[in-house]
Design a protein that fits this description.
By secondary structure, the protein is α/β, with parallel strands linked by helices. It has three domains: 6-143 and 264-326, FAD/NAD(P)-binding domain, CATH 3.50.50; 152-261, FAD/NAD(P)-binding domain (3-Layer(bba) Sandwich), CATH 3.50.50; 341-446, Enolase-like, domain 1, CATH 3.30.390.30. Helices cover 31% and strands 24% of the residues. The chain contains twelve helices and 21 strands. The strands form five sheets. Strands 1, 2, 3, 4, 5, 6 and 16 form a seven-stranded mixed sheet that branches. β12 (241-246) and β13 (251-254) form a beta hairpin. Bound molecules: NADPH dihydro-nicotinamide-adenine-dinucleotide phosphate (NDP).
């Protein structure tokens, strides 16, 4: 019998924590989880899930407009009701919270609805008890961070934006990352007059340059007012809203400001600072390939460790962690290359592998194949939305080392392409694949002419 109350004590019931708890419990480990907020973490409650639901809502805007060319005559101009969307979203999230609770229950994982405090390498204070565990897993995720400027108390962050009391007819987003472009698209689609403020010359730093430029043009065409190379100087409450002064002197009045300026590890009051655990430069927990921190019985994974902040990555890390610590299987490290991702701005971005710029740096000689076209749907809809597809090929080996798309359902398309890129398939393999007609995705197997080298 183990000397500990639990084999694994997980702090944080988000995507990574819940998957780790369930998977470890399935190996016979005695597992507990502490969560002081909602089950399912950021993704389920204030991230991927509600964001995707709101993105669906915003897409109807275009769908209504597109329908006329196909013969639909709407009896009156569609009206959007924020409270219906918000409250239906709340009900759906509550349903998911319940499912997460039942999953833990069904896996025989004890749940503490409390914030845990780590006392030492094997002890935790939780809900008034001190419990011991062979391993402690910190999976507390991240928390939105807002820069310091006069009036920053008037902004909402990405935890709060989903549940605004009233719909912002005029909306402003600060930032140029995933959350900024997604929410600019969402509120623009829902009907807000929307501004995006980004300090750099072009948003989505790190993505393929052509993808960024194409997305900029498409978002601008849809009406998002983009302001680059500027920042918020201050925000003041005005009679009829919030007056936002930019560093370039421009003044914009809006009803709500979202700061989408990044996230920080959520480590407050966990007690880890007293254990001298080694941190990365950005304040996230430093871990090895077995997800051990510098105190080996204390493990960490997911956003709190500073890897790619993506739910599927946290899920994979959880399964690898369990394999390392709770099974006799030979350890297998997670390969962080070629992780596909989607940005749910409108139109969506889907991407896997290297950008053209990274590929040039790493491989030197590359071939770029790209197609920029008007999707078939828009021949009748009258919409001027275009689609970009792009393959980056290493010239020496012919391997496809990057695939990018901006267009409808780009994430759905790139998920399939990601398998080919990960498998190391060549452009010749893409070429011998017979396309599916008529789809947009068939472009990925029919692009024959090199756009540039
Ligand atoms: P990001 O780190 O992606 O972007 C933060 C943005 O804020 C950057 O554009 C950054 O500018 C800007 N910024 C940082 N500090 C300041 C400042 N002081 N003043 C003005 N601007 C500033 O964070 P997000 O909040 O957008 O998202 C967090 C993470 O969550 C993402 O990186 C992603 O991993 C994940 N996520 C994934 C989604 C998906 O899979 N679809 C959706 C949403 C989030 P600069 O570029 O110049 O540094």
């Amino acid at each position: 019998m183990s000397e500990f109350d639990y084999d694994l004590f997980v702090i944080g019931a988000g995507s990574g924590g819940v998957r780790a708890a369930r998977t470890a419990a399935a190996t016979g480990a005695r597992v507990a989880v502490a969560e002081d907020r909602y089950l399912g973490g950021t993704c389920v409650n204030v991230g991927c899930v509600p964001k995707k639901l709101y993105s669906y809502a915003a897409h109807f805007h275009d769908a209504f407009e597109d329908s006329a060319g196909f013969g639909w005559n709407l009896p009156e101009a569609p009206r959007f009701d924020w409270a219906t969307l918000r409250d239906n979203k709340i009900a759906e999230i509550q349903r998911l919270n319940g499912i997460y609770g039942r999953l833990l229950d069904g896996a025989d994982v004890r749940l503490y609805n409390a914030r845990a405090h780590v006392i030492d390498a094997h002890h935790i204070d939780v809900a008034g008890e001190t419990v011991s565990a062979d391993k402690i897993l910190v999976a507390t995720g991240g928390w939105p961070w807002v820069p310091d400027f006069p009036g920053n108390e008037h902004v909402v962050d990405s935890n709060q934006v989903f549940d605004l009391d009233t719909f912002p007819e005029r909306f402003l987003v600060l930032g140029g990352g995933y959350i900024a472009v997604e929410f600019a698209s969402i509120f623009n689609g829902l009907g807000s007059s929307t501004h995006l403020i980004y300090r750099g010359e072009l948003f989505l730093r790190g993505f393929d340059r052509e993808v960024r430029e194409f997305t900029r043009d498409e978002m601008a065409k849809k009406g998002v007012q983009l302001h680059f190379e500027t920042n918020i100087e201050c925000i003041e409450r005005a009679q009829s809203g919030l007056q936002v002064t930019l560093t370039n002197g421009e003044v914009i009045e809006v009803d709500a400001v979202l700061a989408a300026t990044g996230r920080k590890p959520h480590l407050q009051s966990l007690g880890l600072d007293q254990l001298d655990i080694v941190l990365n430069d950005d304040g996230t927990l430093k871990v090895n390939e077995a997800y051990e921190t510098s105190v080996p019985s204390i493990l960490a994974l997911g956003d709190v460790t500073g890897g790619p902040e993506l739910t599927p990555v946290a899920l994979e890390e959880a399964m690898h962690m369990v394999q390392h610590h709770f099974t006799d299987d030979p350890p297998r490290n997670l390969d962080y290359h070629n992780i596909a991702t989607a940005v749910f701005c409108h139109p969506n971005i889907g991407t896997v592998g290297l950008s053209e710029e990274e590929a040039r740096e790493v491989y030197g000689n590359i071939r770029v194949y790209s197609a920029d076209f008007r999707p078939m749907k828009h021949t009748l809809s009258g919409s001027d939305e275009r689609c970009l597809m792009k393959l980056i090929v290493d010239d020496a080996s012919d391997r496809v080392i990057g695939a990018h798309m901006v267009g409808e359902e780009a994430g759905e398309v790139i998920q399939g392409i990601a398998i080919a890129v990960r498998a190391g398939l060549t452009k010749a393999d893409f070429d011998v694949t017979v396309g599916i007609h008529p789809t947009g995705a068939e472009e990925f197997v029919t692009m024959r002419s090199v756009t540039r080298r």
